[in-house]
Design brief:
alpha/beta
């Protein structure tokens, strides 16, 4: 069984967020595949916050409201507040002060690579999941090229 961290680029397709959803059918097919293969999908807090920000900037008020309602339902699924088995869960609902400090210490080097604080926190969560689940494949499910390399196969001992 694998663990996949859902990046903002993918979550915007799933919600969908107008103006940020061009590959929805392919992503939904991937989602179905992941669920059928019992991949544990994690919805990082950064993905939730970034997607919410994208929704808040949709120019059309009707589309903004509709996307916001779809978004809330999807996040509520992750929190277990909707009936039925959720396709994902939130791995780390709160950011501890020491985690934020670690992210801030690393951020200047990541910023030089054009990697934002949200992506840095997803990378950190990826590395934490790798440490916790050494026998499982761990990957970041993203459409962003700089995150695609984060895919560690299951290890055998």
């Amino acid at each position: 069984m694998s663990i996949g961290l859902v990046d903002t680029s993918v979550f915007c397709e799933i919600v969908p967020v107008p103006g940020r959803s061009q590959q929805r059918e392919a992503i939904l097919a991937d989602l179905k595949h992941h669920v059928q293969n019992e991949v544990t999908l994690l919805l990082p807090v950064a993905t939730i916050l970034e997607t919410g920000n994208h929704i808040a900037h949709i120019p059309d008020g009707g589309q903004r409201r509709s996307a916001a309602e779809r978004f809330v339902r999807r996040v509520q699924e992750a929190l277990g507040n909707v009936e039925g088995p959720p396709p994902w869960t939130v791995p780390q609902p709160l950011l501890a002060p020491e985690d934020l400090q670690r992210y801030l210490n690393q951020f200047p080097d990541y910023a030089m690579q054009e990697i934002g604080l949200g992506d840095l926190s997803i990378i950190e969560e990826y590395e934490r999941q790798c440490r916790l689940h050494q026998m499982r494949r761990v990957f970041i499910w993203s459409l962003d090229h700089h995150l695609l390399a984060y895919d560690r196969p299951a290890r055998e001992f």
